[in-house]
Amino acid sequence: MHNIKTMERKILCIIIFIGIFLVVSIAVLNPVDNKCLSFILIIALFLMILAPVWTRHKIGDIAEPIYYISLLYFLYFIVRAVWILFYPSEMYSYYWGNRPEASYDVINTTLAYTIIGFMTLFVGYSSSLPEAISRLLWRPKFLKREFKSGRISLDIIIVLIYCIGLFARFYLISRGQATFLLNPYEDIGFLHSFQLLEELCIFAYGLLTARLLTNPSKGFRYSLWIVMLIIETCYGFYSGKKGFIIPIVAVSLILYHYLHKAISVRSAFSWLGIIFIAFILIIFPIINSYRVQFYKIGGYSSPDIAISTLSVVISELVRGELSYSLTDSTHDLMNRFVGLDAFSIIIESKDYQKGKTISLFFWAFIPRFIWPDKPSLDVGREFAITMWNQPANVQSSMAPTSIGELYWNFGLIGVVLGMFVLGVIYRIVYIYLIKDRKRVSANEALLYAFAFLGLFGIEGNLASQLAHIIQKLLLFGVTLWFISLINRYKRRT
Questions:
Q1: pLDDT tops 50 at residue 1
Q2: Which of 66-70, 237-241, 295-299, 417-421 has the lowest mean pLDDT?
Q3: Cα–Cα distance list, 355 to 118, 362, 365, 374, 405 (Å)
Q4: Among 376, 375, 380, residue whose Cα is nearest residue 395
Q5: In 175-302, which ranges are continuous DSSP H helix?
Q6: Which domain holds residue 268?
Q7: Which end of the chain is more exposed for a tag (fewer CB within 10 A), N or C?
Q8: Is residue 99 in a domain?
Q9: Which of 421, 331, 374 is closest to 87 using CA atoms?
C-alpha cells in the first residue's frame, strides 16, 4: 500500500512539473498581454511554491528554511501579483515621478522567471550536495555543549553581553544611525562595527530565552526576560523599522521549538496569523504615521524629537484619533511586498551588472581603516536611484530581491544557477546546525535562529546579506565559545 501511494505521488509530481513547464514555456517564448495567462501563471507558481509540501509524505521539521522561503515567495510574488491584477495602479508604487506602465506581458514574464528560479532553488535544496558538503565542514565541540553555570553565573554573563549591545545602541542613537532614516552627515562605514555590536542585544535576549527553556528555575530570569522584551519592542518602534517584531518572535519560537516542545503546523499558522493581525492593526499604523511625521520635519532628527513624535502617534492610536484607517494599513502592507515590482523593473531595464553587485561580497571582510574607500555593500540605494528614479539626495533604498539581483547581474542563466546555489546554501545551514532535530543543543538552536533570520533576507542584496550572516554568526559563535570556555575553567578550579 505504501509503495502504491509513493508511485501515485511520483506520477502526480511528474504531471504537475510537466504542466508548469508548458505554461512557463508559453510565457517565456511568447509573452502576451493576457490577464488570463497571468492567473494561470499565478496558479503554476503557487503549485511550484507548494513543492516542498506535495513532494514529501509529510512536513518534517516546521522550522526548516524551505517552508519560510516558500512563504516569502508566496507573499512577494503571488499575493503581490493578485493584488496588482485587481489594483493595477499600485504597480511600481514606490517609483518616483511618472510610473512605468504596468502591462500583463511584463507581469507574465516576471512570474515565469520566478517559477524557473524557485524550481531550481528547490532542486538545489533537495539535492544530495548539501548533505555531502556539510559532512566536509568542521564542527567545533562547543556547539553540542549545554548551558551550565560555573562560578560566574550565566545570568551575569548574559546581562554583560546585553549591556555591551546597549552601549553600541546608545552610541548609534547619539550619531543618528538608529532609525530608518540615517544621518547623512555621518560616516556609515565607520559605524558598521557598532551596528554589529548592537546585535548583541537581541542575541542576549535569545541567550536568556534559551536559558529559561533549559533551566526555568528562578523568578529573576523571567523578570529580566520581560524587561529585555519591553526594551527591544520599544526600541523597535523608535527605529521606525516595520519588521522589528520578526526577530523577537522568530528567535523565541525557534528556541521553544527545539529546546522545549516541537511546534505543530497548526500552531505555526496561528502565530503567522497573529503576527499578520499585529502588523495590520498596530505596527503599520504606528510606524507609518511615525514615518510621515519624520518626513514632515525634514527627515533625520534628534533622539528627543523622535521620541516625542512617537509618543504623540501612540497616544493618538490609543485615543482612536490616528488618521490612518484599516484600508490604509492593508494597502501599505500589500505595497510592502514589492518583489514582483522590483524583479519586473530589472527585467525591463536589461541593464546587466555582470557580477558587479555580487562581487562586493569578497571585499566585505576588509576593515575600512585598511581600505577607507571600500565601496558600500548595500546596493539598495544605487538600485533605487537607477531603477526607481529616486533623487540622489534622498537617504533611502530599495531591495532588488535575491532572484532580481541574480537576473540583474547575469540574466536568466544567473537566475537558474544562482537560485540553485542558494538552495544548496539554505540546506547546508540547516543540516550543519540542526543535524539531529531531536537532540539539538542550546548553542545549535541559538545560532540556527539567527542564521534562519539571515536567510529570510529576500529584500536585501546578496553581498551584504551573506556577509552580514557570516559576521553575526562569527560574533555569536565566538561569544558562545567564550562562555563555554569560562564555565569549563571555573568548574575545574
A1: no
A2: 295-299
A3: 21, 12, 18, 17, 9
A4: 380
A5: 192-198, 200-214, 219-239, 245-259, 265-278, 284-296
A6: 141-492
A7: N
A8: no
A9: 331
The three cell numbers of residue 57 are 509524505
With beta carbons less than 8 A apart as the criterion, state whether 437 and 474 touch.
Answer: no
Q: In angstroms, how far is CA 405 from the centroid of its own chain?
A: 16
All three cell numbers of 151, joined, read 562560578
Cα–Cα distance measured from residue 271 to residue 16, given in angstroms and rounded to the nearest whole number: 31
Classify the C-alpha dihedral 269-113-383-360 as positive or negative.
positive
At 327-373, the pLDDT tens digits run 777 777 788 888 899 999 999 887 888 888 888 888 878 777 677 77
- C-alpha distances (whole Å) from 28 to each of 113, 165, 236 are 8, 49, 43
Is the four-CA dihedral 310, 311, 315, 321 of positive or negative sign? negative
Q: How far is CA 287 from CA 169, 179, 256, 352, in A?
A: 20, 11, 28, 35
> What is the rounded CA–CA span in Å between residue 441 and residue 421?
28
Task: Pick the closest to residue 314 from 237, 226, 227 (CA basis).
Answer: 237
477-486, pLDDT tens digit by residue? 999 998 888 7
How far is 227 from 222, CA to CA, in rounded Å?
9
Contact 194, 227 (CB under 8 A): no
R_g of the chain, CA atoms, integer Å: 23
pLDDT at 158: 93
Q: Number of helices and strands (H, E) in the chain?
A: 21, 0
Q: What is the DSSP string of 456-468?
A: T-SSS-HHHHHHH
Asked, for residue 35, whether it belongs to a domain, the answer is: no
Is residue 59 in some structural domain? no
Q: How many domains does the chain have?
A: 1
Q: How far apart are the first and last CA of the chain?
A: 61
Between 63-72, 142-151, 404-413, 437-446, the lowest mean confidence (pLDDT) is in: 142-151
Residues 6+ apart with CB under 8 A from 367: none
Q: Is residue 234 part of a domain?
A: yes
Question: Quick one: residue 299, left, alpha or beta (phi over 0 = left, psi -120 to 50 = alpha)?
Answer: left
Nearest Cα to Cα of residue 386 among 410, 350, 423, 426: 350
What amino acid is encoded at 141 in this protein? Answer: K
